[in-house]
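Researcher: Watch the backbone:
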Amino acid sequence: MMAQLARYRRHMIMLVIVGVLLIMVSRMGQSSGGFLATGIAAVVLGVALLVVTSVGGRHPQRP
């Protein structure tokens, strides 16, 4: 399963970038708090997925 998740690393990085952009948009002006909440959730999800795939790939799989 970790090998399948590792294929989507580019998408995880894009998720983090989109989250950062949403946080920046929420700070620019009078926008709703939804941008901030969605941005924080996207960054946390992207980083968590990157950590899980990198840590999961380090351990050798047992037969």
Remarks:
- The chain has a mean pLDDT of 80.
